[in-house]
Design a protein that fits this description.
Elements: E1 2-13, E2 28-29, E3 33-35, E4 38-45, E5 54-61, E6 129-140, E7 143-157, E8 162-169, E9 191-201, H1 221-225, E10 229-231, H2 238-248, H3 251-259, H4 275-289, E11 296-298, H5 300-307, H6 319-333, H7 338-347, E12 354-356, E13 362-364, E14 374-377, H8 384-393, H9 397-404, E15 409-415, E16 417-420, E17 425-428, E18 438-441, E19 452-463, E20 470-475, E21 484-487, E22 496-499, H10 501-505, E23 522-530, H11 539-549, H12 553-556
């Protein structure tokens, strides 16, 4: 949402100085302009920021002091028309507009830029951040038609307080020479003018236009969102980390894992081992209860636990197949206990050994198990509610079986692959499918209710072409009315960022579903949580956690530096 706007006008006289009194300042700053609770300055490197070009940045800070000890002599650069034996002369600068907020309009930027070193005292400052769009014009004040400009957008914060063009225009040693097509040289009478147009953007997510610097603090998941990212040591891990992150933030799943009794080798050496449940408890502990919380949590214990059964995730599979494997092994470990029934209550009944297709027929050998997931043809368009209603009316066996079982977590797969007979190739289908906020099924009585209602919980997003392994999770752990979070993978440093509902709709696909959008990131697995299990009581879960920790699982079953399966 656009906020306050302002304009900075800055005229610099004596950019290079005279032969007798050269200006050797490495960086020049304009007087500050106050807007949106921050002080903004233009920052010019007349001899380049370690480059041969002019460097221009917009700087934001919480202090208004005009004195800046970062202005220093540039002993490495030399102007051919100046002598190094003269004294320094400070530039005279003036801001035409008065201090305080302005009503000038900003500009929408669209170009890439370089960053400059941030304030050396950034780590000592109180945290602050502000998102802004800005445009900068550098011109000859005597002939304003000779100008160079750029536009950009950035999130300024105490670890990244300036942003701009490192290679703006150059070489700086020739800006006083009129170039072909110019009415005058950019620098004339040793005077240069700069104008900046700034528009602050109100950012409820705290992540709009955030960029990672080559040198400086990295994204802090806990400070920004309160949630940890997830990673493994597998190649192409996105399918697995996205799927497990979705489950690990489910309150019913947390209760199920913590409530299951998994024997510890030291205490019950002759009991049948339950490596998967122990691994899930360990990961949940690091995710929810570790102090201090970790920026990222490793899911390798889960991978190793499944590998203990002889199942490897190295094969090229997707999130749905990974879910199938995890649930399959959880059911094996929970066989004969009440937890086995709780898995069915949470996810719905499995239809193994054959897989039911959308038309209700079966195909054998399509997967390890048939995961209880309703399938919708994405190329049909419409909304999820419309497609599910149609499937029920047409007598789709899988849709009817899953929905009639009223699982706590309803998972809908959008089939986004299509085989073209002309080219004899599979291609990705990005046709828009509306993600309903609510789903209603007046099919049966559930806990005295006349209808079965679900609320949107999250989605697994797939980016790139059909063969891409780029998966990430978009989820709302707190349920309706709370924030959405996006869990990135290795390519983005396992960041967790808050996103807006508007950005969420971009994952629905394109209206036309044309080939130009085949590599766009779209939702392919959508999860709905039954309304009566959202925001369920966490006191019982806290008791389960305390009971589990009292058995010293962390210290006794997971020894530092040892392999996971060494616990057995």
């Amino acid at each position: 949402m656009p906020g306050e706007t302002a304009r900075i006008d800055w005229t610099i006289e004596g950019v290079h100085g005279t032969r007798q009194k050269p200006n050797r300042l490495a960086v020049l700053r304009s007087p500050p302009k106050f807007i949106g609770g921050f002080y903004w300055r233009l920052k010019l490197f007349p001899r380049g920021d370690q480059t041969s070009s002019l460097s221009v940045y917009l700087e934001c800070s919480t202090e208004s002091s005009d004195d800046d000890d970062t202005e220093q002599e540039n002993g490495d650069a030399e102007d051919p028309e100046m002598s190094r034996d003269a004294e320094d002369e400070k530039v005279t600068a003036a801001v035409d507009a008065p201090e305080g907020p302005s009503d000038s309009d900003g500009r929408d930027p669209d170009s890439s830029m370089q960053d400059s070193p941030s304030s050396p005292n950034a780590e000592d400052e109180a945290p602050w951040e502000v998102a802004a769009q800005f445009g900068v014009v550098v011109y000859n004040p005597a002939e304003p038609r000779v100008q160079y400009n750029f536009q950009e957008e950035n999130q300024f914060w105490n670890g990244n307080d300036d942003f701009g063009r490192k290679y703006f225009h150059g070489p700086w040693s020739e800006i006083h020479v009129r170039q072909r097509g110019q009415r005058q040289a950019l620098l004339r009478n040793d005077t240069l003018a700069l104008s900046a147009y700034i528009r602050i953007v109100k950012d409820p997510t705290g992540s709009l236009w955030w960029r990672q610097r080559d040198e400086g603090p990295s994204w802090n998941n806990i400070a920004k969102t309160g949630l940890s990212g997830f990673f493994t040591r597998m190649e192409g891990e996105g399918f697995f980390t996205a799927g497990m992150a979705a489950w690990l933030h489910l309150a019913p799943f947390q209760d199920l894992v913590y409530g299951f009794h998994a024997p510890i080798q030291d205490e019950e050496p002759f009991a049948r081992p339950k490596p998967l449940f122990l691994a899930l408890k360990r990961v949940l502990h690091h995710t929810l209860h570790e102090v201090p919380p970790s920026n990222t949590v490793e899911l390798t214990p889960i991978v190793e636990a499944v590998k203990w059964y002889g199942v490897d995730f190295k094969a090229k599979i997707d999130t749905l197949e990974a879910w199938e494997i995890i649930r399959w092994k959880m059911e094996q470990e929970a066989e004969g206990t009440e937890t086995q029934g709780k898995l069915t209550e949470l996810f719905g009944p499995a239809t193994s050994p054959s897989r039911l297709l959308p038309d209700g027929t079966a195909s054998v050998g399509a997967g390890v198990r048939d995961y209880p997931c309703v399938r919708v043809l994405a190329r049909s368009g419409g909304s999820i509610q419309e497609n599910l209603n149609k499937a029920l009316q047409d007598g789709n066996k899988l849709a009817g079986q899953v929905i009639q079982s009223a699982p706590k977590l309803l998972q809908v797969e959008l089939e986004r692959q299509l085989f073209e007979g002309t080219t004899r190739k599979w291609r990705k289908v990005n046709t828009r499918v509306e993600l309903d906020e609510k789903l209603e099924f007046p099919l049966r009585m559930v806990d005295g209710a006349s209808k079965l209602t679900y609320s949107l919980y999250g989605m697994i997003v797939h980016g790139g072409d059909l063969q891409s392994g780029l998966y990430y999770l978009v989820v709302r752990p707190g349920g309706p009315g709370t924030k959405w979070f996006r869990f990135y993978g290795e390519r983005s440093g396992y960041q967790v960022q808050c996103i807006t509902s508007k950005r969420l709709r971009a994952y629905e696909g394109s209206e036309e579903g044309d080939r130009d959008t085949e590599t766009a990131a779209v939702a392919y697995l959508v999860m709905y949580l039954r309304d009566d299990v959202f925001n369920n009581n966490s006191e019982e879960r806290d008791k389960l956690v305390s009971r589990w920790l009292s058995k010293s699982v962390i210290t006794r079953a997971f020894r530092s530096g040892s392999s996971y399966c060494n616990a057995y």
